[in-house]
Specification:
Elements: E1 5-13, E2 16-21, E3 24-29, H1 41-44, E4 49-53, E5 59-63, E6 75-79, E7 82-86, H2 101-112, E8 119-123, H3 129-136, E9 140-145, H4 148-159, E10 168-172, H5 175-185, E11 191-194, E12 199-201, E13 207-209, H6 210-223, E14 231-237, H7 244-254, E15 263-270, E16 276-288, E17 291-292
Parallel strand pairs: 1-6, 3-4, 8-9, 8-11, 9-10, 11-14
Antiparallel strand pairs: 1-2, 2-3, 4-5, 6-7, 12-13, 14-16, 15-16, 16-17
Helix pairs in contact: 2-3, 5-6
Length: about 300
């Protein structure tokens, strides 16, 4: 069986990042990497592909060395102990966010500290890295996303991690509507993960703005968490205008009883050189009766 190659962040600088994504070396934008690269230019010139954004919001992939895999070509990498299906998109995405790997490990650690198999919910679940990590650790996971195409991508990732088979339920729905229905049904979860977008529109044209809707969304999450038992909530964010402090504060306001357990910080991608590339924010709580794990297993 062919060995699955790893993802590696080789370098960053001049507002770009150099990544080894399995067999392909790729350059993509990293707007907060305003420092100088650590590696010599010769290493960057070995790139197989460069993604450059356009003002429209999309962008163009340029392939070199005759290595264009084609628009329908997919391949597999391993990152954060998860096998992932990779497919370059018109928005420069590859199908996963490398900065989430430490959150995946935190989720495994939380589930490992529970003395039961928790029921967990992944909202805005994208291609399912967190879903797979929770299922690997023994959780029964409800994976929710509003895009049928993205859920199909997540199912491909699940098939690459067969140990998670029959531990994942797939739901295509609006996050707020689903949470409201779960509350009415009396269904409760032991852990919730959410990575809400900055902006979006629902099927009926309803507008989502994270700065206006986040508090209400977290309140809905609290109503479907079983706070009588150990529970966790993980909020991550890539939106401008937020900070780790602001995410932690809003989580503390919604969960005042657990405010001493709130942990917030930057999501980081480790570089091969030993440096780190910041790429988003997180705030999270793991509450266990009589215990406080705030400072344990930090991202």
């Amino acid at each position: 069986m062919r060995k699955i190659k790893d993802y590696i962040l080789l370098d960053s600088g001049f507002c770009k990042k150099l990544e080894q994504v399995g067999e392909y070396r790729i350059i993509r934008p990293a707007l907060n990497a305003f420092w100088k690269p650590s590696l010599p230019e010769a290493e960057w010139l070995k790139a197989d592909a460069i993604f450059e954004r356009e003002s429209s919001g999309g962008g163009i992939w340029s392939w070199a060395h005759g290595r264009n895999p084609g628009s329908n070509t997919e391949w597999t990498v391993r990152w954060g102990d998860v096998n992932l299906n990779i497919k370059p998109t018109a928005f420069g995405h590859l199908g996963f966010f490398a900065e989430q790997a430490r959150n995946w490990q935190w989720l495994r650690d939380c589930i490992g500290k529970m003395n039961f198999h928790p029921q967990t919910l992944n909202l805005f679940a994208y291609s399912g890295g967190a879903t797979i990590a929770m299922a690997q650790a023994g959780a029964e996971v409800c994976h929710l996303d509003a895009s049928k195409g993205i859920i199909e991508w997540a199912k491909k990732n699940q098939m690459l991690n067969p140990e998670t088979d029959r531990h994942i339920r797939w739901i295509c729905d609006d996050a707020m509507k689903f949470a409201a229905r779960e509350e009415r049904r009396g269904h409760r979860y032991n852990g919730i993960v959410l990575d809400p977008p900055s902006f979006g529109r629902g099927a009926q044209g309803q507008v989502w703005k994270i700065e206006e809707g986040l508090a209400g969304l977290l309140d809905s999450c609290k109503k479907i968490l079983d706070t009588r038992q150990p529970f966790f909530i993980l909020l991550s964010c890539h939106s401008q205008g937020f900070s780790a402090t602001s995410l932690g504060r809003i989580l503390s306001e919604v969960f005042p009883e657990q405010k001493d357990c709130v942990d917030a910080g930057e999501m980081l991608i480790p570089e091969h050189s030993g440096n780190f590339l910041p790429a988003g924010l997180y705030a999270r709580i793991f509450w266990h009766p009589g215990k406080n794990f705030k400072n344990a297993d930090r991202a």
